[in-house]
Amino acid sequence: MPGVIEAINTSPAHGTLQSSVDSAELLVGIGLEGDRYANAEGGVVSMIEAEQVEAFNEATGLGISAAATCRNLVTRGVRLNVLVGKRFKLGDAIVECFELCEPCASLGARLATETVSAAEVVKAFTHTAGIRARIIASGSIEPGTPVSD
After folding, report:
1. What is the pLDDT of residues 32-56, one digit of tens each?
2. 3-class DSSP string for the chain
3. What residue segments make up the domains of the chain, in order of their start?
4. Domain 3-142, architecture per CATH
5. Is the pTM of this model over 0.70?
């Protein structure tokens, strides 16, 4: 499973846009340090493949950024859906994927335009919008951190 973390996105408060950070800590029982969901879900992080965002943009003609999907980690070179139910490493951190991170109506509404409806956004990202994983062992990450078995 050769792949890397391409970007790390956090949002300090609900309703604020995510922004990229140069490095972050994945903490057991907390989640992604500095993110609005840290401490809220017992140490969960969301991930999406850069390739899926690119495919969405190509299919819809839009130009959204990966951060617009509200997923914390953007990966490249690894198929995330096959990791459901499995443990894997993000650098020194260990995570266990417990579910697909399916698109919601809020994502659809946020990304919809005059030419692409909210329903079309949700349909386009169904089964490709990433995963959610629980942090099993803490560790530091940055863009370029390997994703491995």
Report:
1. 999 998 988 889 999 999 999 999 9
2. CCEEEEEEEECCCCCCCCEEECCEEEECCCEECCCCCCCCCCCEEEEEEHHHHHHHHHHHCCCCCHHHHCCCEEEECCCCHHHCCCEEEECCEEEEEEEECCCCHHHHHHHCCCCCCHHHHHHHHCCCCCEEEEEEECEEECCCCEEEC
3. 3-142
4. Beta Barrel (2.40)
5. yes
